[in-house]
Every structure is written in C-alpha cells, then in structure tokens.
Q: What sequence folds into this?
C-alpha cells in the first residue's frame, strides 16, 4: 500500500508530459517516437499503481496455518530451518497406483525378460544356429516363475514390524519434521570456517611439497612431504594454532538446537514414543559420562541425558603424556578446558500427537513455543504456504536468509586452494622466482570473490503438493546473479509447439557472463603457468620427462593457436551473440542414410533434432570469430600433419542461402537438409543445429515473434517421447527381419517386445514437466509442475 500511495505523484507529471508531447509539431520522423515514449511512461505508471498480490501476505489466520503445517506451530519464532514431509504413506499409495509401478512390482521388463545382445556371445557366422547349451539355458530361464505381486510388494515396502511391535509407518506415515534453532547460521559458519581452513592448510602442504620435489628432484620426496603434511598430527597442529579455525573457534562452537518430530495417529502416540525412545538406552550405558536430565517446555515434559564435557576431559587428561608428543602443554590445557565447558543434551517427549526428540549444546535453547501466537507459524515467515492450504501437502522447506548467506560466504571455493598454494610456495627458491604464480593465485581468489559478489539472498520458502501430479512452488532463496530477470525473453514462444521434447529458454546476464569469463580465464592461465613452471625442472624420471616433453611441445607448437581459438570464442563470438538463448529438442528429424541401415528404416524412422538459437548483436563479429577459428584450426591441423606424417587437412565448409539466412556446414555423404549439423545465421538470429531444416524453421518463428516471456523456462513433454517410442517400436516390428538378420537376435526381440510395449504404455501416465524461474516484485520465484494424466 505504501508503494501505491507514493506512486500517485507520477500522475500529474505524466499528464504534463502527455500535453507537452501533444504541443510539439507533428512530423513523420518524431511522431512514432513521441508516442512510444508516452506509451512506455503510461505502462510504467500502470504497473506501479496497479494493486498486486503479495505472495507473502497472510491469507490464513495463525490457527488455520498451524493446523495445516503441523509441528511448525510448536517451533519458536527464531527457528532458522524447517524441513517437513507430509502424508508419506498416502503418497506411497498414490505411487503404487501408477501402471509403471505395477510393472516393476510384477518384475516385468526386468531380469530374465531383458536379455541384451551385448551380454551374450554371438556366433560369428550370420546364419549360425544358437548354441544348444545357450538355447537350453534360455528355455530354462523362461520356465522360472517371476515373483508374484504380493511377494514383490513386500520386498519394496518398508519392512513389516515384528508381531507385537509398532510399524515404522507409525512414525513416518503422517508427518516428519526436522528443524534447526536460532544459532544454526552461526554454527554452520563455524563448521564451514573449519572446513575451509583445513582445505587451505592442505593446499599449503601441497605447495610446500612442490618445493621439496623441486629441491630433491625425487617423486618419492614429494609423496612423503604430502603424506607428512596431510597426516593428522601436522594438520591438527596447524588447525589448533590457526587464529581463524583454532582454539578460539573451538570455544565458540556449540551444537545448534535440532528438533525431530514424528506425528502419530490418535491412540498410537505411546507406541510411537517407544520407537523413538528405543535408541536412548545406549546413553544409559555410558555411566558417568552422562547425567539424566528432565525439564518442561511447551507444556510438556522432556527427559533424556546430558553428555558431560568435563567427564570426557577427565578421560583425555589421562592421555596427556601421549598428547604432549604432538601438542604443547599450553595447547593441551586450553583444549581440555574448552572440552570441559561443553555439554550435549538429548531429550525426548510428546507434544499433542507428536513424538519429539531435541538435541543441542545449550539446554536453555531446547525450547518449544508456549502457543501458536509465539510460534514460527505466526511470524509471517511461513505465509507463502497460505495459497496452497487446500492442497495435499507433500513437503515444506523454510530457510533463513542469514543461513543462506553464511553457507555461500563461508564455504569457500577454489579461492581457498589458490591462496593455500600461494602461501605454500611463498619464500621458496627451488622453483625459481614464483612471484608471478603467487600473483596469479591471488587473481583467482579476487575474481572468484567478484563473481560471488553478484549473488543475493532472501529467506527460502518451498512447498510441494499434489495437484494433477506434483507441484513445487518456491519463494526467495539464493540468486547467483546469472540471469537478467528484468529483461523480457523473445524466444519463449518457441516452446509452445506440442511436438517439442525439450525446451529451455534463459535470459543471461551480461555482467555475470563477463565475471565468469574472467574467472575461467584466470583458472586456465594459472594452470598453464604452473605446468610450464614445473616443466622447467631437470628431473631424471621417465614419467616426468614424458610430461615435460608434452608440455614443452604444446608451448612451442600449439599454445598460440589454442589461445587464439579460445579468444575468438570468448571474444568476437560471445560479443556477436545476445545474452538470451534457447535450446529446442524435437523428435521429428529425418533419419540419415547411413550405409548398412535398411532403406525401410531410413524411410520410416525419425531422428532427434537439437537446436540452440540466440539473437545476433553483431553479425560482423560472428564472421570475424569464424575467420579466426578457421585460421587457427587450419594451423593446428597442419602442425599435427607434420608431426604424424599424415595429411590432416582442415575441411572447408559449404554454404547455402535462403531468405537472408546463410547456413554453413561440412559436407558428408549421408547428410541431408533435415540431418545436417550446421550453423545458420541471419542479421537477427544465430542457430546451431543438427538439422538445417529445423534451424531455418525456428529462425522464421523467432523473427515472426510471439508472446514475450520472463525468466527461465524449462519444459519436457513426455507425450512426445512415448509417442516416438510407439512409432519406433512399430517401425522395428515392421522391419524386424531386416534389422535382425541373426535368428537369435530376432527371437530375443520377439520375446521381449511385449514387455517393451507394456513399459511404453505404462510410461504414458507421465504428461509433462514444466519449470519456470522468475522474479516477482523483487522476489525470486520458482514453479515446477510434474504433470500426470
């Protein structure tokens, strides 16, 4: 509402702009432009002032939401992660209703019914009869009875309970929820910092091992150096003394609160609690290491055990003498003091129809809400579920944006290893001057950081539910910045064809592509520089000498051409194409006239057609890219010919023109228009395709235009696939004698074709998969529909 009120100041401004435009002299050159400006401004005002539905606006009362979401009503408002699975038993029954499941259950199309040609040794002569022993074995296999449906069902279900014992479905069938409390982000960060620093020290060790290898000129010394550095003792010393991951971090580490809740039916709560409590007996056997604990929260009593760090420290104190072989007395004392201060509490209890287990390092944080109004369902964080309250929920996921940011920022990437290698070789002389390598390792870290800085974070909300199949709606989450969400897509209408098997449309982001290219370039340049630095060593080892020869050969003969091809692709070719692209796959292509394939198959069979299409920004740059690639490839092949003594000429492409489009292809005897790997270019569009016919057709549709889209669109049509399978099966049946000249192959096909047809028919339960990702009012949105018939 605030945004709508603030937007009203635009109305007089737009009105003034409209009148001002009308007062301008009319002429044929400026009229259309002025009208276009006015229309765009009016569209902008309409977009701003028109009321919009907020997906996070509450549509249910807190009590209604609590009833729908189950255990979330008992979680505190500051809970950072929730993962719930609902109605698992009901979903399992729905899965069993699928025809394909029935086939699997009956063991059809599996085992003895699926004998494959390459699994059986064939007679070498085409008209040879099947070996009698093999034939006898096959007949014996045919006589083996497949498991009946009841037997198969028992094998695939959760193991039934022993007589008098509760079934696992008692815990898993209604609702299972895992949740993490308010300190999860901080503790996940601590764990990731520890992991990142461990990777750093391993990379440092690798750098030092390289220096040792260069100094001793012994591969064995290299392996020994790595082994010593990667060994637990050396690594523990490094980690304990590290200011980022050492004892200081260990002081801060504490297990975040973990909730595990299982919903039981009325009258089964006590039995369900027995299942959960059955694992608590192991703590009772721990003696003085644990202490019993009991407290109340959320109106219920929880009891269990507390693992005592002070008792663990006492045991470790007895091993101090052996520990002092690797650690200083001061470090051991500080380590034991930290362990002495830690506790881990594990308790169970029941709340309503839920059996709950809670685990955490801080007992005070093992708490449930005092009521719905104090719970997570009343915080506004789970409002995204409200729109789907009438659906059969399958799953709910919620994640705090602080946790997402921590996971990305602290996990580290290749930069961690690059910085470790940088520091590992710093100060060494056996590899010569390594300042250039150190600088390159730093560049990798800098460019990785620049790439990650393009990302953004929001709370993640995801809900999965049954609706004509399975639907998954997500709100927020991590956006790495690779997509231009504001730009309308111009190729989305190419996915409207019902004959497509697969369609993908992505509006890339130019800035992200630039940063990604710079990052990839830094990785390649550094890898090359490291290889050449190592190849300068004079080491008498056969494997090393061979590697050195290849590296020096590449540097002297091929480096310039390979770099030239890379620069043409990352430079002129990338600049010549727009940021949007689409991938289209259909199954309507003509089958190539490959020698040895029966003519009837060539006439009737169809081949997949794969096309990538993108807008052209600069056709001259595309031409320049090809000229450079062709020149460099010709040079590479000439050098390869000289080295091998064989003439390997660069093939020259042929071209054809149609309606302002030029298609380039390499001629081969069995190519034809509908099966021709080629590139088609016009002033507006670029298409790389396995079919010239398909490329021209898609460029025509792209030029004609259609409904513009937004964001990423991914689509799979399973009907196209099953129809194709039907047609191909019919074609194979009609031409079986030609396709299977060997009698054994023909009998094998005839024996299996019934099962194959049943699998195809059963697969027709699946309709389509539709996935769109976009931004709505600044919030990342994803919708997946796995549609069933």
A:
């Amino acid at each position: 509402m605030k945004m709508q009120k603030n937007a009203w100041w635009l109305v007089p401004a737009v009105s003034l702009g409209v009148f001002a435009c009308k007062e301008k002299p009319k002429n044929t050159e400026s009229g259309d432009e002025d009208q276009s400006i006015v229309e765009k401004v009016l569209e902008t005002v309409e977009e701003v002032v028109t009321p919009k539905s907020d997906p996070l606006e509450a549509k249910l009362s807190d009590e209604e939401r609590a009833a729908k979401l189950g255990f979330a009503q008992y979680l505190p408002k500051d809970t950072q992660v929730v993962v719930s699975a609902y109605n698992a038993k009901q979903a399992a029954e729905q899965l069993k209703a699928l025809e394909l499941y029935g086939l699997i259950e009956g063991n059809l199309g599996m085992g003895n019914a699926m004998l494959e040609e390459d699994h059986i040794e064939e007679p070498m002569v085409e008209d040879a009869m099947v070996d009698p022993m093999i034939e006898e074995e096959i007949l014996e296999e045919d006589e083996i009875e497949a498991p009946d449906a009841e037997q198969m069902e028992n094998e695939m279900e959760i193991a039934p309970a022993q007589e008098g014992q509760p079934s696992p479905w008692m815990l898993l069938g209604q609702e299972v929820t895992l949740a993490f409390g308010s300190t999860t982000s901080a503790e996940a960060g601590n764990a990731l910092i520890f992991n990142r620093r461990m990777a750093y020290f391993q990379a440092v060790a690798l750098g030092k091992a390289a220096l040792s290898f260069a100094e001793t000129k012994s591969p064995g010394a290299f392996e020994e150096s790595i082994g010593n550095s990667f060994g637990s003792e050396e690594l523990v010393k490094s980690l304990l003394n590290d200011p980022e991951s050492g004892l200081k971090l260990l002081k801060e580490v504490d297990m975040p609160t973990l909730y595990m809740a299982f919903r039981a039916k009325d009258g089964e709560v006590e039995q369900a609690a027995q299942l959960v409590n059955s694992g608590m007996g192991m703590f009772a056997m721990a003696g003085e290491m644990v202490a019993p604990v009991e407290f109340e929260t959320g109106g219920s009593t929880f009891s269990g055990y507390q693992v005592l760090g002070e008792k663990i420290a006492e045991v470790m104190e007895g091993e101090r003498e052996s520990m002092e072989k690797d650690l200083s007395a001061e470090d051991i004392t500080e380590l034991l003091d930290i362990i002495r201060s830690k506790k881990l509490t594990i308790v169970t209890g029941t709340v309503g129809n839920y059996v709950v287990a809670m685990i955490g390092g801080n007992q005070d944080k093992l708490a449930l809400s005092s009521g719905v109004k104090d719970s997570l369902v009343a915080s506004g964080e789970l409002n995204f579920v409200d729109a789907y309250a009438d659906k059969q929920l399958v799953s709910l996921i919620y994640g705090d944006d602080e946790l997402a940011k921590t996971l990305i920022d602290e996990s580290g990437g290749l930069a961690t290893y690059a910085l470790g290698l940088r520091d590992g070789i710093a100060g060494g002389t056996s590899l010569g001057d390594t300042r250039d390598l150190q600088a390159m390792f730093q560049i990798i870290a800098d460019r990785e950081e620049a790439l990650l800085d393009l990302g953004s974070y929001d709370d993640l909300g995801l809900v999965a539910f049954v609706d004509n199949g399975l639907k998954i709606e997500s709100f927020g989450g991590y956006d790495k910045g690779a997509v231009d969400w504001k730009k309308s897509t111009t190729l989305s209408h190419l996915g409207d064809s019902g004959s497509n098997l697969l369609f993908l449309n992505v509006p890339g982001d130019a800035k992200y592509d630039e940063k990604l290219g710079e990052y990839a370039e830094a990785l390649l340049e550094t890898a090359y520089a490291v290889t050449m630095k190592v190849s300068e060593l004079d080491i008498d080892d056969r494997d090393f000498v061979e590697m050195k020869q290849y590296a020096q050969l590449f540097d002297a003969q091929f480096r310039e051409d390979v770099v030239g091809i890379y620069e043409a692709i990352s430079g002129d070719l990338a600049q010549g194409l727009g940021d949007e692209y689409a991938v289209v796959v259909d199954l309507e292509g003509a089958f190539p006239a490959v020698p040895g394939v029966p003519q009837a198959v060539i006439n009737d069979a169809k081949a997949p057609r794969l096309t990538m299409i993108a807008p052209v920004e600069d056709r001259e740059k595309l031409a320049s890219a090809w000229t450079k690639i062709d020149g460099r490839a010709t040079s590479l092949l000439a050098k390869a010919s000289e080295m091998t003594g064989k003439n390997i000429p660069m093939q020259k492409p042929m071209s054809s023109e149609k309606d302002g489009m030029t298609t380039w292809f390499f001629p081969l005897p069995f190519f034809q228009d509908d099966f021709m790997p080629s590139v088609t270019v016009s002033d507006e569009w670029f298409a790389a395709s396995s079919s010239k016919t398909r490329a021209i057709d898609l460029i025509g549709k792209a030029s004609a235009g259609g409904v513009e889209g937004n964001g990423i669109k991914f689509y799979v049509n399973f009907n196209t696939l099953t129809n194709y399978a039907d047609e191909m099966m019919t074609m194979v049946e009609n031409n079986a004698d030609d396709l299977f000249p060997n009698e054994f192959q023909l009998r094998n096909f005839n024996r299996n074709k019934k099962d194959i047809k049943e699998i195809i028919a059963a697969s027709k339960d699946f309709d389509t998969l539709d996935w769109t990702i976009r931004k709505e009012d600044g919030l990342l949105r994803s919708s997946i529909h796995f549609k069933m018939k």
